[in-house]
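DM from R.C. (forwarded with permission)

"hey, sorry to bug you on a friday — could you get me a structure for this? deadline for the figure draft is monday and I only need the backbone to look sensible"
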Amino acid sequence: MAQSSCPCCRCSIVRQANSDRRSPQVRQSARIAQLRLPRMLPPSAPPQPPGLPITSGVIEVHGHYRATIVAAFAFSQIREASITSVQVTTGTATGTNTSCSSNSPCSMVTVSSGPHHSSVIAGMSYHLWTYDTFPGVFSWKKDPASAFKEAVGIFAGLSVQNLNDYYVGGDLQIGHDMQLMGGLNFYRQSSLAPGFTNGNVYPGSPSFTGPQHWTRGAHFGIGLNLSIFRKAFGSVTGLGTSTTSSGS
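My reply, with the result:
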């Protein structure tokens, strides 16, 4: 220790020349004691209550397909052929001297074009590129090229009302489960029998209907995918299945 006296207050100031004059053995014992002190651990999380964890979120269900069944109503350029006959009781048959009377009536044949052919049809729409059924995947306003690529397809179907009535062409899915289609209609319908001429009068009551022949014309249609019929049928009857997405 060093001592210094102050003349004013006559006090002694003891300065410590060395901060720690302990022996090496004492310092080593202090360090060992510090090392043996228990470390403070962070507080543990409180225990969770029993039960199943509840999560929430949104699941997007994307359904991709290339082919789907479509039911549609089609309008054709082909006109319905009408073959009718009326009874004639005066005059003579065409090209003959056969008289027509009430006792021996004749028949006059008439072939006319009726209304445009139309029918309920069903067929398959095949998309060259897969179609995504998730709403809002493509936009006709923002990206019309991608929307057209997804929507365009090939259609082939037949009438559910008439035999030998077929439809082929292309279709465009303008909205989910809704199709516009167009192409060719091949329709087999009756023709005038050989040996008869439209507008002529013939003795008796012969059959003027001949064999059927193929007619061809353009068609236009609008239809709905089979899935929307299944959804509507299921909502009314409680049957069928539907795809939903929700958080639990």
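R.C.: lifesaver. Confidence is low (pLDDT under 50) at residues 1-19, 233-248.
me: no worries. The CA atoms of residues 62 and 134 lie 5 Å apart.
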